[in-house]
Amino acid sequence: MTTPEDDGARSHGGRAPETEDRTRDRVLQAVLKQGPVSAAELGESLGFTPAAVRRHLDSLSKQGLVEVKVIASQGAGAGRPARRYVLSQRGQTRLGNDYLDIAADALTELADAVGEEAVNAFAARRFGAMERRYRPIVEAAGEDVTARAEALAGALAADGFVGYTREVGATLPEAMQSVQLCQGHCPIQGLAAEFPDFCDEETKTFARLLGVDVRRLSTLAGGGHVCTTHVPVGRHKTPQRAEKRTRIKINKQERPR
Q: Are the C-beta atoms of 141 and 148 separated by less than 8 Å?
């Protein structure tokens, strides 16, 4: 007899437990929204037992829909690398890529009829609209690049891109510090794989919004687990911080010996 615990789902209001397939879809959606995410975090957010969530993750892994990503622990006293789950390319295709074949065919015909420049212009218009929507959100974060990147990640997350940031090089000299702007899902992944102009235009949009030169490290369209953009922050501190450092330096120079 199947129990709610075996199913990985709890019965609500006397209703029958969810089917295996429906429960597995919930786990897949949770990996999409939270990934990279651990099995324990998934179980807590979905209300599943550890054994149940691992069973569903194992099944999704065998279907090629999720993959394990090993992430090095950061900070002082970091332990062994942590295992986190992310959607595979096949999983990305299964979720949120409806009608992309039609769109790809349409853009191919557009390029054949008018030229590649028409596709470039279309991509530029699409991300121009995104930039106009995101700019007030990013500018409200102030001049600090890290804060702006976090605001941009939040806007991307709200639009279904599963955006988040990671600090890099916290122990390195200030000039070498950076953050990575990550996107765990790309609704146009298949389209971007065929037309790289979309990724290029998105990168340019991020650079304009953040006010610094950024660099794309990986993309879902190119086979990466996430879209990752390198954002240098160490050399771009806010004027207030720079003024404070200068004032401290002057005070030290003027201090009597």
A: yes
